[in-house]
Amino acid sequence: MRQAFIGVDVGTSSARAGVFDEKGTLLATARHPITVWHEAGSVVEQSSSEIWAACAASVCAAMAEAAVPPSAVKGIGFDATCSLVVLDAGANPLTVSTSGEARRNIIVWMDHRAIAEARLVNDTHDDVLRYVGGSISPEMEIPKLLWLKRHLPSTYRSAGHFFDLADYLSFRATGSTARSICTLACKWNFLAHERRWSERYFERIGLGDLASDSYAKIGNEVVAPGTPLGIGLNKSAAHDLGLLEGTPVGASLIDAHAGGVGTIGGREKSGDSVDIRRRLAYIMGTSACIMATTSEPRFVPGVWGPYYSGMVPGFWLNEGGQSAAGAAIDHLIKSHPVYNEAVAAAHAGGMEVLEFLERRIVSRVQNPGEAALFARDIHVLPEFLGNRSPFADPDSRAIVAGMDLDADIGSMERLFVAGLCGLAYGLADVVEAFRSHGVDSDLMVISGGAGRSSLVRQIMADTTALTVAVPQTQEPVLLGAAMLGAVAGNVYGSIGEAMGSMSAIGCLSEKTAPGMADFHRIKREVHGLMRKLDRESRDAMHRIGLTAGVDAKN
Questions:
Q1: 382 in Cβ contact with 328 (< 8 Å)
Q2: 100 with 202, same domain?
Q3: Is residue 253 a contact partner of residue 281, using CB atoms and an 8 Å limit?
Q4: What confidence score (pLDDT) does residue 449 get?
Q5: Calpha distance 141→306 (Å, rounded)
Q6: CATH number for the domain including 343?
Q7: What pLDDT is recorded for position 285?
Q8: Adjacent-strand bridge partners of 191
Q9: What is the pTM of this model?
Q10: Measuring CA to CA, how many Å separate 291 from each of 124, 280, 304, 447, 453?
């Protein structure tokens, strides 16, 4: 009988499931939407119960499409966004919302309500912060916990469990409260290289009470990704997912890290051995992560990490990021006056709007790299949600320069290309920060929706001077999650072995003519000027705001 493995991925707007065989061949996928509540003040919330139901619906649909029996499934793994799930001692949802709705028990990764708490933590300059690039982000879990303690103390006091979303899913599946070293090291300030929490750090930031029960609420059993949890799927979860009770479940990964696992170890057509330390993983979704793997710790200011075993067990991880990537491009395009017209034209041709724009653009140039010339006179700093890396500036905001009154699809195309260039320059900032601190690479493997775009790949290759590759599978994040199940089911002895056996590299994009490199160099200079303008503008208006005593957001 053919062996099958299931990967479940929870993104910002949907839960997805993929069924793979032991070679990493995708047999079927399914997707189910999830609700996201947005409120004023950068508040973004979700429901853990709804997310679990969406996971179950996705798994059942994918299994039906794959037409494999539950007995063929030898393991399952979960990945998810780094969102905070709050439960009471009986594992019931506890509200994180000022609305008081119990079902709204998740503070989503992109929620920036805890900016003040992040500043408070950063002002301690605790040694723990060396392992997050020197500065914690409000997207991480410790500032969110501190926000709950300060603003919703009843929820904080009543909580029995604080989970990263990925760990919540494995808990819901097995009943095991063991946490993945990936989630705790990367988002909770767990010192993975020393296998401990820092009690001094928690005391300094006002969360010393978490030590009173030996950190049971946030994780006192920490295991490597892919470690089998409990006795596998419990009876309730097996019923929900349509699988057999006892099916092995591997300790989880954050979604971007699953994408890294699903890509950087891929076999090349040459059959040469793979050195994952010479490869970057670029995972682009609503946000983007740039993952680098090293043998020794590398401290890169403004870049999260180094995290020991944060992605691949036994290696150190540096994690750059862009808080708005796909979300930035979507926002730019939706704000254009002919958006509805472009969507109608795209749908008439059986396409989504971004594919429609790309086809129009690429059809008018000899190679995709030359399409960047469309953005010669328009420039975008696409930081709608701040800068995660390497400037660690959550208050930075987007700037568009060079707009005119044109309101046709051609002007939308120029804005689209300018947005892609802006993302590529943000990526190049991270790559240069890596290089200046001894983290060098030859190849970048890109995944997510952008990975299928030859235009995106070429602009990034021309900007970073890296060869850009796509994985052979169209679903590398789901594949990375499925690898966790393959390791938990003991089909492969390690994450590294699963990576080498289940993934492969697809097509490559090399950098184009030197003229394009010069073009991007000049546009990057403009990008830097825009960043300087944004920072100086905020400083100036902050001084005025202090004088006037006005908070424009309230």
A1: yes
A2: yes
A3: no
A4: 75
A5: 17
A6: 1.20.58.2240
A7: 86
A8: 196
A9: 0.90
A10: 27, 6, 10, 12, 20
Q: Is the pLDDT of residue 180 over 60?
A: yes
Q: Are 80 and 13 in contact (CB under 8 A)?
A: no
In a domain, 442, yes or no: no
Question: Is residue 167 within 8 Å of residue 180, measured between CB atoms?
Answer: yes
Q: What is the 3-state secondary structure (H, E, C) of 110-130?
A: CCCCCHHHHHHHHCCCCHHHH
Instruction: Report DSSP state, residue 513.
Output: -
Sign of torsion over alpha carbons 186, 189, 190, 192 = positive
Mean pLDDT for 431-438 is 96
Q: Are residues 232 and 339 in the same domain?
A: no
The pairing of strands 505-509 and 4-10 is unpaired
Tokens read off for 399: 């700037």
Burial class (CB in 10 A: 0-12, 13-18, 19+), 543: exposed
Mean pLDDT of 478-496: 97
What Rg do the C-alpha atoms of the chain give, in angstroms? Answer: 23
Question: Does a structural domain hold residue 371?
Answer: yes
Q: How many domains is the chain built from?
A: 2
- Give residue 24's domain range: 4-253
Same domain, 225 and 345: no
Same domain, 335 and 220: no
pLDDT at 28 over 80: yes
Q: Give the orientation angle of helix 409-436 with respect to helix 326-334, to 10 degrees.
A: 160
The pLDDT tens digits for 38-95 are 999 889 999 999 999 999 999 999 999 999 999 999 999 999 999 999 999 999 999 9
Distance CA 441, CA 290 (A): 12
Question: Which token pair is 313?
Answer: 């067990």
- The first and second tokens of residue 554, run together, are 């309230």
